[in-house]
Specification:
The complex is a heterodimer of chains A (488) and B (1524).
Chain A (H helix, E strand, L loop, with lengths): L5 H4 L11 H4 L13 H9 L9 H5 L6 H9 L3 H9 L5 H7 L3 H5 L11 H15 L14 E5 L3 H12 L3 E6 L6 H5 L8 H14 L2 E4 L9 H7 L2 E4 L5 E2 L12 E3 H12 L14 E5 L3 H13 L3 E5 L26 H5 L2 E3 L2 E8 L5 E11 L5 E3 L5 E4 L2 E4 L3 E3 L3 H7 L22 E3 L2 H4 L4 H20 L18
Parallel strand pairs in A: 1-2, 1-4, 2-3, 4-16, 6-14, 7-8, 7-14, 8-9
Antiparallel strand pairs in A: 5-15, 10-11, 11-12, 11-13
Chain B lengths: L8 H4 L17 E10 L6 H12 L17 E6 L2 H7 L10 E8 L3 H17 L3 E7 L9 H5 L3 E8 L7 H19 L2 E6 L2 E6 L3 H7 L12 E9 L15 E5 L4 H11 L24 H14 L4 H8 L12 H11 L9 E6 L3 E6 L8 E5 L3 E5 L12 E6 L5 E5 L4 E3 L1 H10 L3 H8 E3 L13 H10 L4 H14 L4 E3 L20 E3 L22 E3 L15 E4 L6 H8 L13 E5 L1 E3 L3 H21 L4 E5 L7 E3 L2 H14 L7 E5 L6 H9 L4 E3 L1 H12 L7 H22 L5 H4 L5 E6 L1 H7 L4 E7 L1 H15 L31 H13 L2 H16 L8 E3 L14 H4 L3 E3 L9 H14 L12 H4 L8 E4 L8 H5 L3 E5 L10 E3 L6 H7 L7 E3 L9 H14 L4 E7 L4 H10 L4 E5 L7 E3 H6 L4 H14 L7 E5 L5 H9 L4 E4 L1 H6 L22 H4 L6 H22 L4 H4 ...
Helix pairs in contact in B: 4-6, 9-10, 11-12, 11-13, 14-20, 14-24, 15-20, 15-21, 17-18, 17-24, 19-21, 20-21, 25-26, 25-39, 28-39, 32-43, 33-35, 36-39, 41-43, 45-46, 48-49
Classes of the chains: A alpha/beta (488), B alpha/beta (1524).
Protein name (chain A): Glutamate synthase subunit beta
Keywords (chain A): Amino-acid biosynthesis, Glutamate biosynthesis, Iron, Iron-sulfur, Metal-binding, Oxidoreductase
Pfam families (chain A): Fer4_20 (PF14691), Pyr_redox_2 (PF07992)
Chain lengths: 488, 1524
């Protein structure tokens, strides 16, 4: 560690500023302003790192990012080594550095009594700097194994697995049912959080390394699962958890009621220059977003950019505390009241709001929501409190209540793959499934989770696949299928 | 050589059991009292023998008895041949004295066997041309001795032989009897106490009091001699042995040879070249050092060989125990050349020693180079010379004494009885130095590397460096944490919080072979050294090259290449490799490089085969006359991997030893795997002459070029070399070894996890108690690393450069730690919210880790066949917690908040917290809530006062600590905050040093003395002795029990909360499981378990840990890291940086505010642990923890161990059930007899009743003898108990003593007591003086009263915090060491005066020895006519000490002290100085630590400005001002 007293010299976090709200609402570009002094901020923050004997951040990160190591390297201006150490555990820091909720920062030891190091910003700075300086180059394997692997799904888990396996010398093809590679990254996350050039840049590297991309092919439909299995030595299933959680209340079939994952992909496609017929638009509308998570926040930012008349977010639970509550002690990742960039851009947030009914007009179009105050029963269940109902007017209701699991009907039909009681694709602790040569990675096996978990699973799955194909493996396996974050 | 007739004959005369369980007789140590008496009058007399025997009786307290009161550890006497007596009792005509030899044979008890041996001896005598004149049965009073001594008692018979031609006499006859004796030993197993024409020894397994009555010969009026050498032994065990009693044939030794393993090996190596015209064919006489002998016995054997081989006795002694000549600026070149020449022939036998030697005419003594043993002498007007370990062994009328003195390090004391004079040291040495042209020989034959042609420097590419880093298993962490700091600062990196990773054999990762070895360290039986402050006695340079015959002296012997440092860079190595090309040398030297590579796919078998090939290559090179063999692991590639350099070196070393060709070549290692101090230390410890860690150097060069260092590539390499070399010196010092040549091959390491076969083949003589891996696993580990460099897939992993490491800082892909994010979190969460179920998750995870074999206890399981008892029948939590202790963490290293939290919690529980080394503030001391019950005494003695000890429940003497056994500590000035300084009785801002040794414990009998002192300072306190687990700790613990400690604490190697060099933190000591089991087994075998409590600590984390500790023999348990974590510690491991972010290990007021611990949490923790203990007890069927102590049968080794490395481990020795002698106990059942009832202080206390009652002044006048030890201390305790830390007004109790006072006169004496001694005093006067006054002046009748009169011994005023000492005369070494507040006046001091002093005033009215003011960080010394060359070199050259004349205040002070000195002692020196005061005062130099002066000025100013130092930032500001 370069400066053992750095954390005492600088007591506060400092992050690069966002662009002013009115300005950023005028475009879809990332909300961060890139300024020359950013790198100075980053160095100072990296210098706050205490290089702990037990770096809890390194544990808090599912990938096991070597955070103290690259903090030190940034502090020393050793950017090339910094990206090397970052890439050692993370295939795609440009994604996590932008959209990860940063459990590492929750577990930062400084966080016990001071604001945590701005780890995520250091991370994204390293990779941005590395791309800018040309340090990110294809890592082409010196020798191919002759083995072939299909990866189904091109979200972060699939891509991570594909890159790892390609670099290990296998011939890897990534299948994607959508028109473009990227999965949730491309379609789920708005550009103002993650511009798509970041994905394209990474895909270019992967192609140069030898990974083959097959977009627009849906396994089970365009090719059967069995055909796929006989064509490849191994198949990695990385199809995500795409089934949205439903809103089981009267009126949920009204027009103007959409899942966030209908709304956001269309918006993203349009930003990417594609044409979408009958696009769901918030323009001029009173938008209500049900669900207070990240997807909900993405809906806010997108709606505002489309010119919504108003945006209201309804969350069924209590407003989270602004500082760590006692029952979520350090170093666990607490649920806190957060103000994302989208929240800062406008809209209202309503808590303890249980939507009991969607109200429509005579055309079957939604006009409002009947919302009651949530009541917590002694057993922890949340119910609408009778007599507290009120009406919130709405033209567009976006349901962003999360996802229940993967789409599995074709898979089960064609392969007899097992499912868990939660509807997830059954797998062993090492990501293998009951089907020889078939491996399950990412949200499809874990259920809805974070990108950082997806990458971690993809990497770990690659190790299992490599060992399956070659007998041994030197690939790292940061997590197992059952690994979970530290909870009290 | 024929097979010995009775190979067990001499071993049968020893009561020591064979090795069993973890007990190994090789671990035995002893220490002793020694004395000699001689006359200069030229005629033998009965009086001399009587005087010798009397002196022996008065050394009784330095000996010891075991469990049986009437079995001593050993006593003996050596005299001249008592011709008149022998002539009368031997029934034959004898030739003149000198022409016959007589020897004391220890024959078998069985008459028939004895007869057989006698016959065989006669046969050998005939072969050796000796005529057997007689055999005489020696009368003994057998029923005097106890059963164990009796059982092993030999038959004593004296053999008388002579030259059949009656031509030989004296030494010439002895050369022939030597052949007879050695052959009898080798061929018959017969032991002779002596067999000589010049001396005769009587000795046995006796107490000092038994010796004379046991051998009635000794009482015979006809028994006369001119000299008598006597010895009383204190062995650490209770199995003394008849042959190992002393004196030996030529010496009696008080001390210990630390380097003895290496010395013996080198002697064995030299045997191939040994030849002597005097001794004839040596083959049947070999080995020189017999097996199973003690260090002293081996020394005697070699000394005897050198002497009989043609050198005078003083010459031979100086070869083996040279003075510290290497850094001695004042020595004459001729004398230096004498030593330098002989250093090429034989390495020093190093260790604390007072060696007394005689050939029957000359008798003398020397100390080790460091002066670590006491020796005092007297000469009377009628020619009686007495030398002894202490003053007062003979009642000599002071009026007759004409000379008094003390042995000094590096000086020889020699009496020539034939010439009737004492031969001065200078005369002896000048004569020896002039005997041959040593200076010319050395100058003409020394080759310096600088003089060899320079070689072009080779730089390797970063890619090449990285690939080889992978091949040698380098980790990112090692590069960052080890190499970077060494390259930047030339010093070893520090760490903190111990180690919680698995030992190498339990690690699932491939580990370097180095990691399977742990460093041994000195504790109790010999002191570690301080290589920094006492650098002048150390040397890490040396010469390398072939050694010719030891027994001759020629110019050829001087031909060597001189290396100033044991680590050499790549260019220097290239010079040596190319030495045959050096034109100036004309090809006199040649180097051969041997490739240490093996076919990696050949596995262990391939490795073995390759080693055999290497042996052949080496043999060939030796045969061809090469001088240097370079063992190199360079140039590995895909198929050929490097042999671990340690294996390579040690295998070749031992191969050459076996071939007796070892001394014909030097081994130089070119090793890629070396990157730590520990690695370098091992290679040298196993025989390497020099180490070239080429890859480490290339690595730091590369780092420097990439901008990772603050220095240039060149400087980085130099720094690395320096850090490694200095680090090795530290490792040596830990073991008390001062020179590289003695350390080389000394094998002061213990193996942990290596198979006996591997050790036997390649690391012969190394201890490896649990077995372990062999060549197969070593080869597999190499292969695993090799694959990283040459991956089988052909693909390097992208972005994976080196492995992360994770040994020092936790990493997910790194080594496992017991404390990881999850265990830390669960432990904190459960104790903070008092959730036992969450706590179980924590212990579950820790115990699971144990099951994954991270610890040795993980290999154990509870035996399944026990009947459980219901939980509610098990003793309650409240009883169990009373057995718990928190570890010794000083206030200073941890914050007040953290320290008090632990204390409050432990007091609430009825358990014990520990002050640590740093004293205790009086407001806490007397606060029942916040006090720590256990008060520690560590080597720095910080805050150790009468008050501190009086108000202790327990007093713990720390001999070593787990994190850095054998090392001292340093609290840097910036951490000595004002409140810390107050508690420590020191100055804020001034750094504090804890010396590596306790300067009053250089041996086991010294420890007994300190225990006695502590007990006197508080008779109701339990005295603990804290040891660290290593080979032999059980034996030391036995000694500790014999030394009357109440509690012995065995610490694991892994504990430790303070800062420590990483080398020590990781590589010294062993797990507590082994040390505890060894302790229990050895105590039980010795029947000493009943009287002592055994405590254990070291990474104790769960109830299971406690139960395993109990079953292995502990009744109390210590915890440190876990309660710290409970208090908020998150294992930052930066305790040494004062930046602890959670306010635990810091004094920074700002950070301390962040402390979140609370006593409740700690209470929760201990109650949870106790609850788990209850559950385990119930399951095992014990109702109390007491019942479980020592019930090792309740443990099994785990059946199915599925671990690629641990499979070879055998834990059976840990679980061995000691075979107790009848009536011996498995646990503590009784208490020690401290002998306080016999103390002189009882009389003093009675006489001082009035003063104690109400402060009425009293005067007391009593005689005193050397057996009255620790006089005044118990009286002081009574004062302090009644009057607290302030004591009474000065002189309230005025005690006048007359005679020779025993050791520790006035220890911890509080204010109000004055001791006035007329006579002289021994060591440790005024130890821990706490305000009292001590005046020592010569006896009223003494004629010898001049300034050259030695008045008191060594280590006076050690750790004194207040009071005064006036000494009229000279004193010994280490005067005023760590004084922090007392005023001391003396008329001359030995070496190392005022060492580590932090406060107080010292006035020296005479000479100072060398190294004055070393490590002195505070206080003031005034020295008359100071010789500046006597100052510590570092302090003098770096300006650490400021020298000046006296200012006005000083003048007043010094004049006042002179007047008081004259008044109190009648000093003529003071009177003379006072007679012409202005001139006298101008002769004084004031010695003042520079930083101390500055900070005092700054503090005075702050005080004047009323600055509040507890305000954040205020203290830093003062420091800044002070430092300019």
């Amino acid at each position: 560690m370069a400066d053992p007293r750095g954390f005492l010299k600088v007591r506060e976090r400092e992050l690069p500023a966002y662009r002013p709200v009115p300005v950023r609402l005028m475009d879809w570009r990332e909300v961060h302003e890139h300024r020359a002094e950013d790198s100075a901020i980053v160095k100072v923050q990296a210098g706050r790192c205490m290089d702990c004997g037990i770096p809890f951040c390194h544990q808090g990160c599912p990938l096991g990012n070597l955070i103290p190591d690259w903090n030190d390297l940034v502090w020393r201006d050793q950017w090339e080594d910094a990206i090397d150490r970052l890439h050692a555990t993370n295939n795609f820091p440009e994604f996590t550095g932008r959209v990860c909720p940063a459990p590492c920062e929750s577990s930062c030891v400084l966080g016990i009594n001071q604001p945590a190091v701005t780890i995520k910003n250091v991370e994204v700075s390293i990779i941005d700097e590395a791309f800018a300086r040309g340090y990110v180059v294809p890592q082409i394997p010196q020798r191919l194994t002759g083995k072939t692997v299909a990866v189904v799904g091109s979200g972060p888990a699939g891509l991570a697995a594909a890159q790892q396996l390609t670099r290990a010398g296998h011939t890897v093809a990534v299948y994607e049912r959508d028109a473009t590679i990227g999965g949730l990254l491309r379609y789920g996350i708005p550009d103002f959080k993650l511009e798509k050039t970041h994905i394209d840049r990474r895909l270019a590297q992967m192609e140069a390394e030898g990974t083959r991309f097959r977009p627009g092919v849906e396994i089970g439909v365009d090719i059967t699962w069995d055909e796929l299995r006989s064509r490849f030595d191994a198949v990695v299933l990385a199809t995500g958890a795409t089934v949205p959680r439903e809103l089981p209340i009267p009126g949920n079939d009204l027009e103007g009621v959409h899942y966030a994952m209908e709304f956001l992909p269309q918006a993203n496609a349009v930003v990417a220059g594609e044409t979408v017929e009958d696009q769901i638009l918030a323009t001029g509308k009173h938008v209500v977003v049900i669900g207070g998570g990240d997807t909900g926040s993405d809906c806010i930012g997108t709606s505002l950019r489309q010119g919504a008349a108003s945006v209201t977010t309804l969350a069924i639970g209590k407003k989270p505390p602004t500082s760590r509550p006692e029952n979520q002690p350090w170093p666990t990742d607490p649920l806190l009241f957060e103000v994302s960039s989208s929240h800062a851009e406008g809209g209202e947030r309503d808590y303890l709001a249980s939507t009991v009914e969607l109200i429509g007009d005579e055309h079957g179009h939604v006009t409002g929501l009947k919302v009651a105050t949530t009541e917590y029963l002694p057993d922890g269940r949340r119910v609408p409190q009778a007599g507290t109902e009120r009406i919130i007017p709405a033209d567009l209701v976006l349901v962003a209540m999360g996802f229940t699991g993967p789409e599995t009907s074709l898979l089960v039909q064609q392969t007899g793959a097992g499912l868990t009681s939660r509807g997830l694709v059954a797998r062993n602790d090492d990501f293998s499934s009951a089907l020889p040569g078939v491996f399950v990675t990412g949200d499809a096996g874990r259920g809805q989770s974070l990108i950082v978990w997806a990458i971690a699973e993809g990497r770990a799955t690659a190790a299992t696949v490599d060992a399956y194909l070659q007998g041994t493996t030197e690939l790292p396996a940061p997590v197992r299928a059952t690994t979970v974050a530290l909870r009290p | 050589m024929t097979t010995p007739l009775h190979s067990a004959t001499s071993s049968a005369m020893s009561a020591a059991p064979a090795a069993q369980g973890l007990y190994d007789p090789r671990a035995e140590h002893d220490a002793c009292g020694v004395a000699f008496v001689a006359t200069l009058r030229g005629t033998p007399g009965r009086d001399i023998v009587d005087a010798g025997l009397t002196a022996l009786l008065n050394l009784d307290h330095r000996g010891a008895v075991g469990a049986e009161e009437n079995s001593g550890d050993g006593a003996g006497i050596l005299t001249q041949i008592p011709d008149a007596f022998i002539r009368d009792v031997v029934a034959v005509d004898l030739p003149p004295v000198g022409s016959y030899a007589i020897g004391m044979a220890f024959l078998p008890q069985d008459a028939a066997e004895a007869a057989e041996v006698v016959g065989a001896v006669e046969l050998i005598a005939a072969q050796e041309r000796l005529e057997v004149l007689a055999w005489r049965d020696v009368p003994v009073t057998a029923d005097l001795v106890g059963p164990s001594a009796r059982a092993s008692m030999p038959t004593f018979r004296q053999l008388v032989v002579a030259d059949p031609e009656r031509k030989l006499s004296g030494i010439e006859l002895d050369r022939r009897t030597y052949r007879l004796r050695k052959r009898s030993e080798n061929e018959l197993g017969l032991f002779f106490a002596s067999l000589s024409a010049r001396t005769l020894t009587y000795k046995g397994m006796l107490t000092t009091a038994q010796l004379e009555p046991f051998f009635p010969d000794l009482s015979d009026p006809r028994y006369a001699s001119e000299l008598a050498l006597v010895h009383s032994r204190f062995s650490t065990n209770t199995f003394p042995s008849w042959p190992l009693a002393q004196p030996f044939r030529m010496i009696a030794h008080n001390g210990e040879i630390n380097t003895v393993r290496g010395n013996r090996n080198w002697m064995a190596a030299r045997q191939g070249k040994l030849a002597s015209e005097h001794l004839g064919d040596l083959a049947p006489l070999l080995p020189v050092c017999s097996d199973g002998a003690s260090d002293s016995a081996s020394f005697d054997e070699v000394l005897e060989l050198l002497h009989l081989g043609g050198r005078s006795l003083p010459h031979a002694v100086l070869m083996m125990v040279p003075e510290a000549w290497e850094n001695h600026a004042e020595m004459s070149p001729e004398r230096r050349a004498f030593y330098e020449f002989h250093a090429n022939l034989i390495e020093a036998w190093d260790g604390p020693a007072c060696l007394n030697f005689t050939d029957g005419t000359l008798i003398g003594a020397v100390l080790d180079r460091n002066g670590l043993r006491p020796g005092r002498f007297w000469v009377t007007e009628d020619g009686l010379v007495v030398l002894a370990s202490e003053a007062g062994v003979l009642d000599i009328d002071p009026a007759t004494v004409v000379q008094k003195g003390r042995l000094e390090p590096g000086r020889m004391f020699l009496v020539d009885t034939a010439a009737g004079r004492i031969v001065p040291d200078d005369e002896i040495k000048s004569q020896l130095a002039a005997q041959r042209p040593y200076k010319q020989w050395v100058e003409e034959n020394s080759v310096f590397l600088d003089a060899l042609p320079d070689r072009e420097h080779v730089v390797h590419s970063p890619a090449s460096v990285q690939r080889r880093q992978r091949a040698f298993g380098y980790t990112e962490e090692e590069v960052k944490i080890l190499l970077t700091p060494m390259a930047n600062t030339a010093a070893e990196p520090l760490g903190a919080m111990g180690t919680d990773t698995p030992i190498a054999v339990l690690s699932s990762r491939p580990r370097l072979l180095f990691d399977y070895f742990t460093q041994m360290f000195a504790q109790v039986t010999n002191p570690p050294l301080d290589a920094i402050r006492e650098e002048l006695v150390t040397s890490i340079g040396g010469a390398i090259g072939p050694e010719p015959n030891l027994l001759s002296d020629t110019a050829e012997h001087a031909r060597k290449v001189v290396l100033s440092f044991p680590v050499i860079d790549n260019d220097d190595l290239a010079k040596i490799i190319n030495i045959h090309k050096a034109p100036s040398l004309g090809g006199t030297f040649d180097a051969t490089t041997i490739r240490g590579l093996f076919r990696v796919d050949g596995g262990g078998e391939g490795l073995r085969d390759r080693l055999e090939e290497i042996f052949d290559e080496v043999d060939l090179a030796v045969a061809q006359g090469t001088s240097f063999i370079v063992l190199s692991d360079r140039d590995s590639y895909q198929d050929y991997a490097p042999i671990p350099s340690l294996l390579l070196v040690s295998a070749v070393h031992h191969h050459l030893l076996r071939k007796h060709t070892r001394t014909q070549v030097s081994l130089i290692v070119e090793a890629g795997d070396v990157r730590e101090v520990h690695h370098t230390a091992l290679l040298i410890g196993y025989g390497a002459a020099a180490v070239n860690p080429y890859l480490a150097m290339e690595t730091v060069e590369d780092l420097a070029k990439s901008g990772y260092l603050d220095v240039t590539p060149d400087k980085a390499v130099k720094n690395l070399i320096k850090a490694l070399g200095k680090g090795v010196l530290k490792v040596m010092s830990k073991m008390g070894i001062s020179t590289m040549s003695s350390y080389r091959g000394a094998q002061v390491f213990e193996a942990l996890g290596l198979s006996h076969e591997l050790i036997g083949d390649y690391f012969t003589g190394t201890t490896s108690r649990l077995g372990g891996i062999g060549l197969d696993v070593i080869a597999a580990e190499v292969a695993a690393r090799h694959t990283e460099a040459y991956p089988s897939s052909g693909n390097f992993q992208a972005h994976q450069r080196l492995a992360v490491g994770g040994e020092y800082q936790w990493r997910r892909d790194g080594e496992e730690h017991l404390f990881d994010p999850e265990t830390v979190f669960r432990l904190q969460h459960s104790t903070r919210t008092r959730q036992f179920d969450v706590f179980r998750e924590y212990t579950q995870r820790v115990d699971d880790q144990t099951a994954r074999l991270m610890t040795l206890r993980g290999l154990l399981q509870f035996s399944g066949d026990r009947t459980p008892v219901p939980l509610d029948e098990v003793e309650p939590v409240s009883e169990i917690v009373k057995r718990f202790n928190t570890g010794a963490m000083s206030y200073g290293s941890i914050s007040q908040e953290a320290h008090e939290t632990l204390a409050i919690a432990m007091n609430r529980l009825g358990a014990r917290s520990n002050t640590g080394e740093g004293g205790e503030d009086s407001e806490r001391l007397h606060d029942p809530e916040r006090r720590s019950k256990v008060k520690q005494i560590a080597s720095g003695r910080f805050g150790v006062t009468s008050e501190y000890l009086t108000f202790a429940d327990d007093i713990q003497i720390k001999l070593a600590q787990g994190a850095k056994p054998g090392e001292g500590g340093q609290l840097p000035g910036h951490k000595v905050y004002p409140w810390v300084a107050k508690t420590r009785h020191s100055t804020p801002g001034v750094g504090l040093i804890s010396p590596p040794p306790h300067h009053d414990i250089y041996s086991i009998e010294d420890l007994a003395q300190l225990i006695h002192d502590a007990k006197n300072a508080n008779p109701s306190a339990r005295i603990h002795v804290k040891l660290v687990s290593e080979f032999g700790v059980g034996t030391v613990a036995t000694g500790v029990s014999k030394a009357h400690a109440d509690v012995v604490l065995i610490s694991g190697h892994d504990g430790g909360t303070g800062a420590s060099p990483l080398t020590s933190l990781k590589h010294a000591g062993t797990p507590w499981e082994i040390g505890l089991a060894e302790t229990q087994q050895t105590l039980v075998l010795n029947n000493l378990r009943d009287r002592i409590v055994v405590q254990v600590d070291g990474q104790m984390k769960t109830g299971r840990d406690v139960i395993i500790g109990a079953l292995l023999g502990a009744e109390e348990f210590g915890f440190a890291t876990a309660p710290m974590v409970v208090s908020g510690c998150i294992m930052m491991r930066v305790c040494h940086l004062d930046t602890c972010p959670v306010g635990v290990a810091t004094q920074n007021p700002e950070l301390r505010k962040r402390f979140t611990g609370s006593p409740e949490f700690v209470v929760n923790f201990f109650e949870f642990i106790a609850e788990e203990v209850r559950e385990h007890l119930a399951a095992l069927g014990f109702r109390t923890l007491e019942e479980a102590v020592g019930q090792v049968q309740a443990l099994d080794t785990r059946k199915a161990v599925d671990h690629w490395k641990a499979q070879g481990l055998d834990l059976a020795p840990v679980l061995a059930v000691p075979q107790p002698v009848e009536g011996s106990s498995l646990r503590n059942t009784t208490t020690q007899d401290h002998g306080l009832a016999r103390a002189l202080d009882n009389q003093l206390i009675a006489s001082a009743a009035a003063a104690l009652e109400d402060g009425t002044p009293v005067s007391i006048d009593v005689p005193v003898r050397n057996v009255n030890r620790t006089v005044g201390t118990m009286l002081g305790h009574e004062v302090t108990k009644r009057y607290g830390g302030d004591g009474l007004p000065d002189d309230t109790i005025d005690v006048t003593l007359t005679g020779s006072a025993g050791q520790s006169l006035g220890a911890f004496l509080p204010r109000g007591i004055t001791l006035r001694l007329f006579g002289d005093a021994n060591d440790y006067v005024g130890k821990g003086l706490s305000g009292g006054r001590i005046v020592v002046r010569p006896d009223r009748s003494a004629v010898l009263t001049g300034a050259s009169n030695v008045i008191a011994g060594n280590v006076i005023g050690y750790g004194a915090t207040g009071g005064e000492i006036f000494l009229r005369g000279l004193v010994g070494e280490r005067f005023g060491v760590r004084n922090s507040g007392a005023t001391l006046v003396v008329e001359g001091v030995g070496d190392h005066g005022c060492e580590y002093m932090t406060g107080g005033t010292v006035l020296v009215l005479g000479n100072t020895g060398r190294n004055f003011g070393a490590g002195m960080s505070g206080g003031t010394a005034y020295v008359l006519d100071l010789r500046e060359e006597a100052l510590n070199t570092v302090a003098a050259t770096t300006g650490e000490l400021t020298l000046s004349g006296l200012d006005d205040d000083d003048l007043v002070l010094v004049e006042g002290l002179l007047r008081r000195h004259a008044e109190e002692t009648g000093s003529r020196v003071a009177e003379a100085l006072l007679a012409d005061l202005p001139t006298s005062l101008a002769r004084f130099t004031k010695v003042l630590p520079t930083e101390y002066a500055r900070i005092r000025t700054a503090l005075a100013k702050a005080d004047a400005d009323s600055v509040d130092l507890s305000v954040p930032g205020a203290w830093e500001e003062i420091l800044e001002v002070a430092r300019g």
